[in-house]
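[Solved] Which block belongs to which protein?

Original post:
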Amino acid sequence: GVRKGGVKDLCFLGGYELPGLLILYETQPTTVGRMALRSDTCALLTLSLNLQARSYSVICNAGDLPETARKVQALPGPAYGA
């Protein structure tokens, strides 16, 4: 899961019935010296937010992304997404 201090970036996703949140986070901290052993330490988590019920649902979770991933950006309509 997403640990405290592991979030690299996030963005809100519009154009859906419920607002969405895309979070880019690091699953395990790594250093330059350890890159040869583990370099795919980032993941994406997409949440659907139900603000009235104060709850969320996990839409997608993608792991094993390169440690060099730094930013996520929402796309405007009509494409939407990130």
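(Second protein starts here: sequence line, then its structure tokens.)
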Amino acid sequence: TMKDLRSIDVDVVTFGQYLRPTEHHLSVVEYVKPEKFDYFREVGEEMGFKYVASGPMVRSSYKAGEFYLEHMIKTERREQSKE
């Protein structure tokens, strides 16, 4: 669960929709509505995750580090502009 991840200081979490790559792979059991992904993002942010990527097309990948750094830089700049 997200609580377990935060308890061991995980800072980044991603939620995406499984899409069947070929007919030889498992079928999709449920298509998750975008509102549910919004909910996961909001809960994750409230729990203190530094970055939550949540949406039907979100994928964990080698690009995740780049997205995380971009998010952290934008957040820091927003906070500095408020001062």
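Accepted answer:
You had them paired correctly. Confirming on the second one: The chain has a mean pLDDT of 89.
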